[in-house]
Write a structure and sequence with these properties.
single chain; alpha/beta; about 240 residues
């Protein structure tokens, strides 16, 4: 599904350093790391955000080199992203927002809200500052479901949601897998990492370790929690 080869990104300092990994069809691939590790920068680079265009390396998606493609072109190919900080919109209702990219035009859009723990009362509310951060994150999770992407990049999906809602995240991942989607799960949360099939640990822009989720989590707990190389930046 996706292969990342020797990806490097430098802004004021090196952010991503020789990143190599691959994601299989219908696989959940976890990217675990502390704040400042480069996790979100990697997600932005994969999505095609112009400000995070890699300096070198290759991204192969379904056998095609997509390094030169824009965010909209990648979206048309079936790549979607859940942002760590939900996007704010003015003048659009939750219902209209969810219908924008919905693949199932005949479906009751309310069903997608139920899947993320919200009810139909939200359909007529506006997607703006009147919603809490957690509500907007849930609505964006519902939006990802409506898109039925081939590849979903979920950047800190539990951010802004209390940990009780981890079950909802697991349900959403299972729902995406039922569509045949592959998922990149970006997180600093060990419990969220357990939802992945394979994982890698990133720190200071390097891939430190790849393997089974439990193996990566154990290494993270033992080696990374008190590591002096961690930077106090958003990763």
């Amino acid at each position: 599904m996706l292969e990342v080869r020797n990806l490097n990104l430098c802004k004021e300092y090196p952010i991503l350093k020789d990143i190599n990994f691959s994601v299989e069809e219908n696989q959940v691939y976890g990217i675990l790391g502390p704040n400042g590790a480069g996790k979100s920068s990697l997600a932005y680079a994969l999505m095609g955000i112009e400000e995070y265009k890699p300096d070198s390396g290759t991204v192969i998606y379904q056998g095609k080199d997509i390094m030169g493609l824009s965010i909209s072109e990648r979206a048309k190919m079936g790549i979607s992203m859940l942002w760590q900080e939900p996007v704010r919109f003015e003048g659009i209702s939750v219902k209209d927002y969810l219908q924008l990219g919905c693949k199932d035009k005949g479906v009751n859009i309310e069903e997608y809200l139920f899947k993320v723990g919200l009810n139909g009362d939200y359909l007529d509310r506006m997607v703006d500052e009147t919603l809490s951060g957690g509500e907007r994150k849930r609505i964006e999770l519902a939006s990802i479901l409506t898109l039925k992407p081939k590849l979903a990049i979920l950047d800190e999906p539990d951010s802004g949601i209390d940990m009780v809602s981890l079950d909802y995240i697991a349900d959403i991942i299972n729902e995406l897998k039922s569509y045949g989607s592959s998922i990149i799960l970006v997180t600093h949360n060990e419990e969220v990492t357990k939802l992945s099939d394979k994982s890698l640990l990133i720190c200071d822009g390097f891939i430190v370790k790849k393997g089974e989720p439990e193996e990566i989590i154990t290494y993270f707990k033992e080696k990374c929690n008190h590591c002096p190389t961690k930077r106090d930046k958003n990763g």
